[in-house]
Amino acid sequence: MLYGWYTKNSVLIQVNPSFVPMQFNTALSFVLSAFGLLLIQQKNYLFGKILLIPVGAIGAITIFEYILGLNIGLDELFMTHDIVVETSHPGRMAPNTALCFLLFSITCILSTKKGVYLKSGGILSTIVFGLGLVAFSGYFNGMEIAYGWGRFTSMAVHTSFAFILFGIATTLRFLAIEANQHEKTVMLPYWSIGYAIVLAGTIFLIDIRLSNAVSSSIFYVVLILFGWNMPARKSTLFLAAISSCLLFISFLIDPKPDNTYVAVTNYLSGIFIIWVTAILLYKIKNSLLVKDVLLRELYHRTKNNMQFLSSMLSIQSLYTNYDEVKVIIEETNSRILGMALVQEKLYQSSDLSRIDLKDYITDLVELLKGSLLSDSSHVDIVTKLENTRTNIDVAIPCGLIINELFTNAIKHGFPDNKEGTVKIELMKTGDEICISVTNNGVSIPAEFDFKKTSSYGLNAIIMLSEHQLGGSLTLNTEGDTRFILKFKDTLKANKI
Asked: In the prediction, which pLDDT does 492 show?
């Protein structure tokens, strides 16, 4: 568009000779907005904000110019405008365009924050999307009021389409941030109700322009399908009620249809289809939520049973005088608690099939530290873990392997209160997960072949690594002692 203004290319500026032109300031703000969002997406927050703040300032100043009836010279500061179709002030962007830029700049800046700022940003992104969609549908329906506010400059058709894309882009960014900060889930956040309202309003605007002889219920069915992914249990019923009211209003607006029988039939069949769809989706959703509760209860009971079994083993160890038996019971107890921790993580997760390995390993290490290290221990524990989500079939063997390697490192690498460090790393490249446990304690002889040992623990982790995970376990004794486990996270496709 900037090129269009410099070359006076009306096709780029207007699309159609009867359409409103995209003002130069509007095109400039889009360029700054796009690069600002891109920089923020690349986590270059400072330069991203430097580009976005002028965008918000231009939008805010333009709004105040409309409100106060001023002209401070911003409109044609960079370019003289000679295309003034539906333009109240040459070069001045429409008030709804200015509002969108102001909200968009705030939205992008809020996306760099946490907590309530994210929810606020999500709401603003729906408003940007909504203003763009309403204006764009106005061109489709021939409703000037949708893209032009009174006697002021109207929003251009390509401007409205750009705001639809910008609104979707920022919404996807907020959804990705919430998924990374919390738990991945198929449910949309509560602020997504804004999208439902916008879609309902847009469908209504389209519907009132259609003849009653044309059924518009299919559009409302799409709206109800959108409600399926909303967190409220009765969201589909709520949207069905709104759709019915809007459909009824559009029916009343056209009181003298060409064919009354067809109009009434379309209206009643539309209501029927809307409610059948809504009720079926509600029942399916309700059934899934019940299964979700039952599955959580199963995880919770499994965890409690494992903890009970652990307590029984601890009591049993008090009745034996054989140190070897006590060691075996303690090791078994540790393994059981590690598996119970997986059940606890799944119970607390919003996604009942997958857990975050980073959180699980962190808690597992803390659990092992409490049982293996005293407060006066001089062994430092270092973790370098990436966010990696996987399913229970991967998490349990990973936990057992880390349990054995960590326990062996503490018991055999640092005898007699020897000082040192144990480092646990978790990395994921593509679909390959790499877990390593390193210690700088007593070295393992270079000629030691851990795959030919009679140790139960080492034999167990070899079996878990190769047979359960389908990966490989290697030992590096050059310098520090380092066990490296590599496997592909493909069990999710075969097991879930």
From this structure: 45
